[in-house]
Amino acid sequence: MPEMTDPNGRDDGVQIDLVSAARMEGLASMEKVRLILDGVRDGKIVILEQGLSPDEESKLIEVTMSEINPDDFSGIEIETYPSTSAGKGGLLGRLMGGDDDSKLTVIGPANQIETLHKDEDLISAIVSRR
Prior knowledge:
- By secondary structure, the protein is of the alpha+beta class.
- The chain has a single domain, classed as 2-Layer Sandwich (Translation Initiation Factor IF3).
- It has helices at about 20-25, 30-40, 55-65, 85, 90-95; strands at about 15-20, 45-50, 75-80, 105-110, 115-120, 125.
- The strands form 2 sheets. A 4-stranded mixed beta sheet has the order 1-2-4-3. The protein has a two-stranded antiparallel sheet with strand order 5-6.
- Strand 5 (about 115-120) and strand 6 (about 125) form a beta hairpin.
């Protein structure tokens, strides 16, 4: 993802990368994981229009765990909720393996993002600067 620089040299915000489903569509699972982790390691919040499959999410967590270093990278915070089309199947539909990739996913550095509240329609979080 291209780096954003403030022409005035300020560094007082948090960059949020909104990644479209179309961009993720052509990528292999490991390419998706790298795209996400590279952004998060740079201190960005990554929001995926279409969530990861359960296997991709497991791979993301596995790779994250292998890269954690207390002095450099503290890991990720990941929150997901179904979109309205996926929510129509209800809890039973999701438990039975319903449309798992039809969801919005928010991923950020564990030391910068704190989830305050999560339900079917909303994720509330506090994002702090390092």
